[in-house]
Amino acid sequence: MQFKKSLCVGAAMVAATLAAPVMAQESNYKPGTVWEASRIDVLPGQFENYMDYLATTWKKNQDLAKSEGIVLDYHVLAVNNPRQGEPDLVLIVEYKDYQTTAQQEAFRKKVNAMMAMDDRKQATANGERGKMRDLMGSTEYQEMILK
Fold it and tell me: What is the DSSP letter of 85?
Protein backbone atom coordinates (compact mmCIF):
# COMPACT_ATOMS: atom_id res chain seq x y z
CA MET A 1 0.00 0.00 0.00
CA GLN A 2 2.82 2.38 0.91
CA PHE A 3 4.50 1.55 -2.41
CA LYS A 4 1.32 2.42 -4.36
CA LYS A 5 1.01 5.69 -2.45
CA SER A 6 4.64 6.57 -3.22
CA LEU A 7 4.13 5.61 -6.85
CA CYS A 8 1.02 7.87 -7.09
CA VAL A 9 2.85 10.78 -5.46
CA GLY A 10 5.80 10.26 -7.81
CA ALA A 11 3.51 10.12 -10.84
CA ALA A 12 1.75 13.30 -9.74
CA MET A 13 5.09 15.07 -9.37
CA VAL A 14 6.19 13.96 -12.85
CA ALA A 15 2.85 15.11 -14.32
CA ALA A 16 3.16 18.49 -12.61
CA THR A 17 6.70 18.88 -13.91
CA LEU A 18 5.62 18.05 -17.45
CA ALA A 19 2.62 20.40 -17.26
CA ALA A 20 4.69 23.38 -16.09
CA PRO A 21 6.13 24.18 -19.57
CA VAL A 22 2.62 24.10 -21.07
CA MET A 23 1.38 26.60 -18.49
CA ALA A 24 4.48 28.75 -19.06
CA GLN A 25 3.74 28.95 -22.79
CA GLU A 26 0.58 31.06 -22.36
CA SER A 27 0.97 34.27 -24.36
CA ASN A 28 1.21 37.69 -22.78
CA TYR A 29 -0.99 39.15 -25.50
CA LYS A 30 -4.18 38.52 -27.40
CA PRO A 31 -5.01 39.54 -30.98
CA GLY A 32 -6.97 42.78 -31.23
CA THR A 33 -8.49 44.85 -33.98
CA VAL A 34 -7.27 44.95 -37.58
CA TRP A 35 -5.92 48.19 -39.03
CA GLU A 36 -5.45 49.12 -42.68
CA ALA A 37 -3.25 52.04 -43.69
CA SER A 38 -3.48 53.16 -47.33
CA ARG A 39 -0.78 55.47 -48.66
CA ILE A 40 -2.09 58.09 -51.11
CA ASP A 41 -0.02 60.32 -53.40
CA VAL A 42 -2.33 63.15 -54.43
CA LEU A 43 -1.54 64.36 -57.93
CA PRO A 44 -0.63 68.03 -58.52
CA GLY A 45 -3.65 70.32 -58.44
CA GLN A 46 -5.99 67.57 -57.16
CA PHE A 47 -5.75 67.90 -53.39
CA GLU A 48 -9.08 69.72 -52.91
CA ASN A 49 -10.85 67.41 -55.37
CA TYR A 50 -9.56 64.33 -53.59
CA MET A 51 -10.46 65.74 -50.17
CA ASP A 52 -13.98 66.37 -51.54
CA TYR A 53 -14.18 62.69 -52.51
CA LEU A 54 -12.97 61.61 -49.06
CA ALA A 55 -15.45 63.93 -47.30
CA THR A 56 -18.38 62.53 -49.29
CA THR A 57 -18.18 59.08 -50.91
CA TRP A 58 -15.35 57.60 -48.84
CA LYS A 59 -16.83 58.91 -45.57
CA LYS A 60 -20.29 57.54 -46.45
CA ASN A 61 -18.78 54.09 -47.04
CA GLN A 62 -16.88 54.22 -43.73
CA ASP A 63 -19.96 55.42 -41.84
CA LEU A 64 -22.02 52.57 -43.33
CA ALA A 65 -19.32 50.10 -42.25
CA LYS A 66 -19.37 51.63 -38.75
CA SER A 67 -23.16 51.30 -38.55
CA GLU A 68 -22.81 47.64 -39.59
CA GLY A 69 -20.23 47.01 -36.85
CA ILE A 70 -17.46 46.26 -39.36
CA VAL A 71 -15.41 49.43 -38.85
CA LEU A 72 -14.68 50.85 -35.41
CA ASP A 73 -13.04 54.08 -36.57
CA TYR A 74 -11.31 55.76 -39.49
CA HIS A 75 -8.93 58.66 -40.00
CA VAL A 76 -7.39 60.75 -42.77
CA LEU A 77 -3.85 61.78 -41.89
CA ALA A 78 -1.79 64.34 -43.81
CA VAL A 79 1.91 63.59 -44.06
CA ASN A 80 3.83 66.65 -42.97
CA ASN A 81 6.64 67.54 -45.36
CA PRO A 82 6.56 64.31 -47.38
CA ARG A 83 9.89 63.36 -48.90
CA GLN A 84 10.23 61.87 -52.34
CA GLY A 85 8.48 58.51 -52.45
CA GLU A 86 6.31 59.22 -49.41
CA PRO A 87 2.51 59.71 -49.54
CA ASP A 88 0.65 62.97 -49.07
CA LEU A 89 -2.15 61.27 -47.12
CA VAL A 90 -2.59 58.09 -45.12
CA LEU A 91 -6.11 56.67 -44.80
CA ILE A 92 -6.43 54.54 -41.68
CA VAL A 93 -9.37 52.24 -41.01
CA GLU A 94 -9.74 50.20 -37.82
CA TYR A 95 -11.78 47.04 -38.38
CA LYS A 96 -13.42 45.06 -35.61
CA ASP A 97 -12.00 41.83 -37.06
CA TYR A 98 -11.16 40.09 -40.31
CA GLN A 99 -14.14 39.43 -42.58
CA THR A 100 -15.00 36.29 -44.48
CA THR A 101 -15.46 36.44 -48.23
CA ALA A 102 -19.23 36.11 -47.74
CA GLN A 103 -19.25 39.05 -45.31
CA GLN A 104 -17.21 41.16 -47.74
CA GLU A 105 -19.60 40.32 -50.57
CA ALA A 106 -22.68 41.17 -48.47
CA PHE A 107 -21.18 44.53 -47.47
CA ARG A 108 -20.15 45.32 -51.07
CA LYS A 109 -23.77 44.81 -52.11
CA LYS A 110 -24.93 47.24 -49.40
CA VAL A 111 -22.41 49.83 -50.57
CA ASN A 112 -23.54 49.42 -54.18
CA ALA A 113 -27.17 49.85 -53.14
CA MET A 114 -26.37 52.93 -51.04
CA MET A 115 -24.37 54.50 -53.89
CA ALA A 116 -26.92 53.39 -56.54
CA MET A 117 -24.12 51.64 -58.46
CA ASP A 118 -23.20 48.17 -59.59
CA ASP A 119 -19.73 46.60 -59.64
CA ARG A 120 -18.97 47.94 -63.12
CA LYS A 121 -19.88 51.52 -62.17
CA GLN A 122 -17.85 51.22 -58.97
CA ALA A 123 -14.82 50.06 -60.98
CA THR A 124 -15.25 53.00 -63.38
CA ALA A 125 -15.48 55.44 -60.46
CA ASN A 126 -12.32 53.94 -58.98
CA GLY A 127 -10.58 54.48 -62.31
CA GLU A 128 -11.74 58.11 -62.35
CA ARG A 129 -10.12 58.66 -58.96
CA GLY A 130 -6.85 57.70 -60.65
CA LYS A 131 -6.88 61.20 -62.15
CA MET A 132 -6.66 62.62 -58.63
CA ARG A 133 -4.33 60.25 -56.83
CA ASP A 134 -1.98 57.31 -56.97
CA LEU A 135 -2.60 54.56 -54.46
CA MET A 136 0.92 53.75 -53.31
CA GLY A 137 -0.27 50.61 -51.53
CA SER A 138 -1.76 49.65 -48.25
CA THR A 139 -0.56 47.75 -45.24
CA GLU A 140 -2.60 45.68 -42.85
CA TYR A 141 -1.78 45.48 -39.16
CA GLN A 142 -3.29 43.63 -36.23
CA GLU A 143 -3.08 45.09 -32.77
CA MET A 144 -1.50 42.88 -30.12
CA ILE A 145 -3.17 43.65 -26.79
CA LEU A 146 -0.75 43.06 -23.95
CA LYS A 147 -2.11 41.31 -20.87
Answer: T
Any idea what DSSP says for residue 107?
H
Indicate whether 80 belongs to any domain. yes
Range of the domain at 89: 29-146
**Reported pTM:** 0.77
Measured on CA atoms in the order 80, 84, 88, 93, is the torsion positive or negative? negative
Low-confidence ranges of the chain (pLDDT < 50): 7
pLDDT at 18: 53
Per the structure, the count of domains in the chain is 1
- Does residue 103 lie in a domain region? yes
For helices 59-67 and 101-115, the axis angle rounded to 10 degrees is: 130
